[in-house]
Amino acid sequence: MISLPILTALYALYTTVCAVNPVNVTGQDFYDTVTGDRFMLLGVDYQPGGQAGYKPQQGEDALSQGDVCLRDAAVMQRLGVNTIRVYNVDPTLNHDDCASVFNAAGIYMVLDVNSPLGGESINRADPSSSYNSGYLNRVFGVIENFKNYPNTLAFFSANEVMNDIPTAADNPPYIRAVQRDMKNYIAKQGSRAIPVGYSAADVREILEDTWNYMQCSISNDTDNASRSDFFGLNSYSWCGGDATFESSGYNDIVAMFGSTTIPIFFSEYGCNKVMPRVFDEVAALYGPQMTSLSGGLIYEYSQEEADYGLVQINSNGSVSLLTDYDNLQMQYNRLNITLIEAANTTAANLDPPECSAGLISNSGMSKSFDLPAVPDGVQQMINNGISNPTQGRIVDVSNLTPSQEVYGTNGAPVQGLQVNRVPDDQSNTPSGATPSTSGSGAPAQPSKTGAAVVGARAEAAVGFVGLLGFVLSLL
Ligand SMILES: *[C@@H]1O[C@H](CO)[C@@H](O)[C@H](O)[C@H]1NC(C)=O
Ligand SMILES: *[C@@H]1O[C@H](CO)[C@@H](O)[C@H](O)[C@H]1NC(C)=O
Ligand SMILES: *[C@@H]1O[C@H](CO)[C@@H](O)[C@H](O)[C@H]1NC(C)=O
Ligand SMILES: *[C@@H]1O[C@H](CO)[C@@H](O)[C@H](O)[C@H]1NC(C)=O
Ligand SMILES: *[C@@H]1O[C@H](CO)[C@@H](O)[C@H](O)[C@H]1NC(C)=O
Ligand SMILES: *[C@@H]1O[C@H](CO)[C@@H](O)[C@H](O)[C@H]1NC(C)=O
User: Is 205 a catalytic residue?
Assistant: First the structure.
């Protein structure tokens, strides 16, 4: 007979071992390594407070406050996302509560390893002096911090460093060098291969060249370490309800990347030239014409100066959903999840092209694949690990109900909002729940009658069955 305290302790332990499945890259797609389902990013960029929300001197970044993450994970789970991108994290902070609550919600994290502070990124105006051991120590710190979370999906080595032709002249070899060092560090110090890739600006003169530069294979590059595992594109070309697959140039994007040897996804998308946004591009991106891409991340979760928010974060900690949230939720709810998760049985899984000057067409773009040497002292960090890393781990998150109010677009509180723990092997999917208003000013649909209750029941069932399985596995 197992006593109640023991059962409670076991449940706490069980909730910490519940985890989303690791995702890997096979050919041009991401896959759930356990179920074999294809994984497409259904995501949002998460940058509460904007760039100014990164406050390492105050011990704060977007993933340092568990209660804030719980609120936002509940709001995002209801929206239907399975991935967030976080731009700036401090590798010395504890991110366990946030990582664990997103894990419980079935939401993966893609982390940028850089920050806007001096010395914490490759300086596009001076790559050679910014590529140094102090910088790489920070990059490796981010890897240490996030490598043990099962819901760490990937790392971005850099974001939009090449943003015009002049910046494409000298920077590319440095980005590949950073990737080489990151992937070698993960291979030595991590327990699984976490994908590493670049997030590109949609500068059409150099876009195809940049993708080719990052995906090609250098013959003397041991284990293809400097090669990107995936390619992110920040794309804002589909604007408003009148745009189409053709007028937005999405057709060109699909054609350009037709022979890709690595996954491609939108690392930012969601043009705001026409407001409110109706997000018709979502149906296109996840529809039959674009399944060769791996989805995307909507820019961005919270309303900041640039006016791209899905929600407004109020000064008292409450959140007000905006019309864009309802519109995006409606688009997500219409997606065919069967289509999205179907493995591509005809995927070509092409070998990467060999890097050579002939692969690059713009005369201003770097044609050199002679990468900078590993800076002094860095190979030692790779071999032995950096000193005193802060390493994260999944912790018990028993409270899954946010304390803050969340208001629907009609101003009424969203009832029953909580994180519903997804069953062990799953990521979050759109719930099909009715948005908080249908745009007509109708009263909020209490989500208690919908997904939340189903979710709660499912959680109870999963909790019990999962716990039983877990207890049996210990015997
Ligand atoms: C990804 O995971 C699947 C399932 O575990 C495995 O069959 C496949 O070989 C892995 N791919 C790579 C490139 O590691
Ligand atoms: C890089 O990967 C490709 C495809 O798997 C392989 O053909 C090639 O030999 C690899 N190159 C190196 C240098 O490991
Ligand atoms: C918090 O702020 C929002 C927006 O200003 C307001 O509507 C709401 O009433 C406040 N909630 C509480 C609990 O004070
Ligand atoms: C969803 O996609 C699957 C796989 O392509 C297809 O068989 C099914 O008919 C689609 N469902 C709807 C409702 O379009
Ligand atoms: C499957 O892969 C093939 C060849 O790589 C590609 O042309 C096709 O668009 C892919 N289909 C899906 C559903 O991703
Ligand atoms: C490795 O190969 C690249 C591309 O062929 C070349 O530019 C570079 O000089 C080589 N580096 C070394 C150390 O041999």
Answer: no
Ligand nearest the Cα of residue 227 is 2
pLDDT tens, residue by residue, 30-85: 999 999 999 999 999 999 999 999 999 999 999 999 999 999 999 999 999 999 99
pLDDT band at 431 (very low <50, low <70, confident <90, very high): confident
pLDDT, one tens digit per residue, over 73-125 is 999 999 999 999 999 999 999 999 999 999 999 999 999 999 999 999 999 99
144 is an active site residue:
no
Work out the angle at residue 156's Cα, subtended by the Cα atoms of residues 222 and 181, and round it to the nearest 5 degrees: 30
Q: From the CA of 33, how far away is ligand 1's center (Å)? A: 6
224 touches ligand 2 (CB under 6 Å): yes
Ligand nearest to the CA of 406: 3
- Domains of the chain (ranges, CATH numbers): 4-459 (3.20.20.80)
CA-to-CA separations, 354 to 166, 181, 287, 294, 381, in angstroms, rounded: 24, 20, 32, 24, 30
465 has which bridge partners? none
For residues 460 and 169, the model is more confident at 169
Structure tokens at 250: 């999405």
Residues near 385 by Cβ (< 8 Å), separated by ≥ 6? 140, 144, 188, 189
Model confidence pLDDT, tens digit, residues 172-193: 999 999 999 999 999 999 999 9
